[in-house]
Structure formats: structure tokens, C-alpha cells
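Minutes, methods subgroup
Present: GH (chair), OT, SY

1. OT presented the first of two proteins processed in the latest run. Sequence and C-alpha cells recorded below as shown on screen.
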Amino acid sequence: MQTKLIKNNSKNLIIFLTGWGCDADQFSFMKSEKYDVLICYDYTNLNFDFDFSKYNEFYLISFSAGVNIGCVLKNKLPKFKKTVAINGNPLANNQYYGLRKEILDVFAGVTPSNALDFRRKFLVYDDEEFRKFNSTQSHRTFESCMQELLVINQCNSSNEPVEFNIAILSKDDKIFYYERQLEYWSDKSRCITLENCAHFPFFRLDNYDSIIEI
């Protein structure tokens, strides 16, 4: 796993577990004024080593596959004051609540030549978001993303899932069905629905502080 630490001279740390194919560059437009932010990405391996000793409080934001990865890594993570799941759940490999076979087939069929079509259809809501997405896109190689997908597909946590305080769900998510997400989270967390929003919601949620304090 790769990490990038954004320093704001804070004693409190947000750990941000991103989704499949992401890197830190993809979230360069996101800001925080109150917290240091540790962006975690590239799950081609799940080696994780970070010195948490200089921080007092910890917060977790998990996006998409990162929600399940957080559960897999639970024993390596600190105790969180607040946790937020965005467009994902701990049962990523469950056919009903998680990534359905047809979506996994779509992922497996992504190639360098059709990647733009995949982004427009499955990740963003409209043409303006598509433009923004492409202007801050991940610089991961195609091969790295495909290797990561294999690891994600094999990840099943033997631990109790992370308890998430808040689940943020996009109404127009084509990766995880909104209705099934809502069914999963409704008795576990406070659910917040983003209307007119697709799987990648960070042009709406572009401030780490406001996500934590939502």
C-alpha cells in the first residue's frame, strides 16, 4: 500500500482509504485546514506501517473498496473518534450488497482504450464532473490497477467490521446500488444521501474537514 501525508501542523489525523485505481494526485483538489491527512492507496499489497504516536485523535474516511480494506486492516489501525464510509460497505465481495458479478465483469473488461468510457458511465454524474475527473486523474499504470483489482477481489476480513458512524451514499451510484447500500447501512449508521451524484462524489465533498464534521 502507498501513502501520502498532507501536513497541516495538526495533532489530529484523518486516514483516507481511497478506492480502486486511485492515487494521491487524484485528490489534490481536496483540502483540510484542521487535520493532517494520510491518503492511502494502491492495494496491490496490504503492507501498512505508519507511526501514529505523535497524534492525539484519529478519524477515518473510507471510499468504495477502501471501506472493505479498512476492515481487513482493522488491527493495524488506531482507535477512531469518528468514521465515515462513502459509497461502499464491508461486504464488497457479497453479490447482493457488494460488487455484483456484472460490475466485476465491467472492471475486468476495462482497457486503456475504453477507460474514458468507463469513467463517464460509471464514476461521474455529468460532463462537467467528467472534465474535472480527467484533469486530476490518477497516474497509476493500467497494469497496477488490474493487479490491485485481483487483490481487492480476494479480500475478506476475518475481523469484526469497522463500525462506521456515518454512511454517505450517492443516489446515482452505478457501482454499488443505492437501494442495497441503504438497506445495508440503515440499521448500522446515520445515512446521508447525495442526490444527483454518482460513485465518485468528491467534487461535492471536496473538503476533508466538512466530511468529518458532516
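2. SY then presented the second protein from the same run.
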Amino acid sequence: MIYTVTFNPAIDYVVRTGELVLDSVNRASSESMFFGGKGINVSIVLAELGVCSVALGFTAGFTGEAIENGVRAMGIETDFIRLPKGNSRINVKIKSGSETELNGQGPDVDAASLDKLFSRVDRLSAGDTLILAGSIPKSLPSDVYERILKRLSGRDIRTVVDASGELLMNVLKYRPFLIKPNDQELGELFGTEIKSAEQVELYGNKLRELGAQNVLVSMAGNGAVLLDENGGVHKCGVCRGTVVNSVGAGDSMLAGFISGLEQGFDNALKIGTACGGATAFSEGLASREKIGELLKQL
């Protein structure tokens, strides 16, 4: 079974308007709501691909209840931990030619609730996959990713980490099966700017030397590169289309890649690329139909 963890789920409230005028009343021309957070996004796209997963994480208040109900309505199994105080966050995204975002902070996660998450992680069995995605709330200890991977070490469980900075670097000693930085995040890890696929290979291999088994690097309009556990290098270009939404494209790529692993790394990379493109070319997350359409390009 695949398990995804979203430490700080959200309702994304997307508002479209004409020119945004400050210090004035602005009226929406349309609006949408999406239930998300990086791990939840992965579960949603996996469901579109016909792959089952269990969404873990923390929810709170009436917004948390809405997130849980919304995710379950998509046919995704959930096992969220309800926090005793606060409300799950709402992220406001204003699209008025350019895009302005106001992301909520989210509730505090108390020690007892974190212990409940550890207990759920302890139930995983050999052959399962655990995906840790995104940043963590300020109320959580900075080593929470490390503590989870340490608990799973030596248990034949695939661990996947989609994070940046120290959250990512500090788990490498536990040899995660897959990490997925984008090219900007990869450069930040080494204090440089990534400008070519050759640099992606150079610095991606440094992450493999530090412990990562497989490194998947997305490069927006320049495609993606996978450095695999056998020392192989796999590359894939991008799909053709008009970008209308960047939110969740990386999560969608990760979902597609995981879904295609049984058919080999090259196929997994193609499916991941199609999923990332399907989200980038859509108002919401990738649909099965859009993924199939883009796969034909690859």
C-alpha cells in the first residue's frame, strides 16, 4: 500500500478577478475550491491513475472536516489525526492577470498528536511505500522527517521524500528510496544556480553519494532527469501545452512516477512527466483523460 503524509493540509480558495485594485472592493468573476497539500495532491493523482493510497496527516476544526470529507469523496482512503485546537488552513489565490497568494499558517500540532502519527507509521509493512511531501508546521520539531525515516529503517519500506533544504538533506543518511527536488531546490542545496542538465547530473549524483537511492529532478520547461540506483541517467522532455496552473505539478509528477515504477524507470519518468504536464495545463490537478492525451506525445 502507498501512504502519503500531509502535515499541513489546506483548502485552496482560488478567486479570479479583473485588475486587482488595492484599498478598494474587488469582485470575483469566478471562484473554485480545492482540497490539497502536497501529500494529498499525490493521493488525488494516484487515484486518477487507478492506484490506491491512504492519506495521512493532521486536520483541525471545520475546515479540517471539510478537507477529510472532500478527499474521501474522491475515493481516497484517509486516516487523518484530528487536532484538539485550531482550524486547518485556507490558502487564498487571487488570479488577476498575475497571481497573488496568501497562505494560511495552519494549526499547531501537539506532542500527543505527533505520537499518534508515529503509531500509524509503525503499522506499515514490508513492501509498503511512504511519501513525505512538503514543509512542516512551525509547531513540529525540525527533525520530524528524520525521526520517521529512522523508525522505518531496515523494514523494507520504500520511503519517498519531496522536500527542500535541511528537511531533505538530513534524511539522506537513512537512504530514502526516492527524493524529488526541482532544479532550483537542487541548486539551493549546494549554494549554486542550476542552468543545465549536466549540472543536474553532477549535483544529483552528489545527493546519491550522500545516501539517496534515486534522485528525480524536475526542471519545469526543460524536462526532468532521473538518476537511478544503478547509476543510470534517464531524461524526458516536456509535453506541449499552455501552462495555466503551476500548483501541484511537481506532486503530480511524483504520483505518476510512483505509479509507473513496476514498468521500469523510463516508463515511470514518462508517466510522471505526463502527469506533471496534465496539472500544469489544467485549472486543477491532472485528470486521467489529460494524462492519457499527453502520454501520446511522449
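Chair's summary of item 2: The mean pLDDT is 93.
Next meeting: continue with the remaining queue.
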